Amino acid sequence: MAQKVDFIFVNALDLAEPTIVQAARLLEKERIIKVIPVGPGQEKPTGPMLLVIKREHMERAAVLNALHTLLETQPNVILRADNERPTMSEEYATLRGFSPEEIQTELKPWIASGRAAARAETERVAKALETAKAEEAALYAPPVAPEPQQA
Number of folded domains in the chain? Predict the structure, then answer.
C-alpha cells in the first residue's frame, strides 16, 4: 500500500534542471504541494507514495504539467485527483493507491447490498422470534384467578 504524501522530493541533479525548478516553484507558490530537496549524496525515497491533488488544481494545465515534470524521475509516486474512484479491476485500483475498503465499496457494490439484505433479514427474524416468544409465554402462562368479590 502506498503512503499518502503531500510532498515531492528532488535531488541536486533535479535542481540543476530549470524546468524542474520552475515547476517546483509554481507548485509551492500555489500551495499545492511541498517540494523537499534531499541532502547532498542522498537518494530520493523509492517506496510507493500516493499524491492526491484537489480536482480543481488537476484541471489546470500549468499545474498538471508541473506535477508531471516533477514526477518524471519518480515512478514510485502515484498521482491521483481527489475525486478519482476505483475503476476497472481490483488490481488496477490497487495500483492507483486505493484501499481495500474503497475498492470493495466501488467495485463490489453487491457485497454492501448483500450485507444490507442480510441485516434486514436478521432484524425481521429477530422480531418474529420475539413475537413467537411472547405468544408462547401467553399460551403457557398460568390462568389468572378472578379476584374474590367483597360482600
Answer: 1
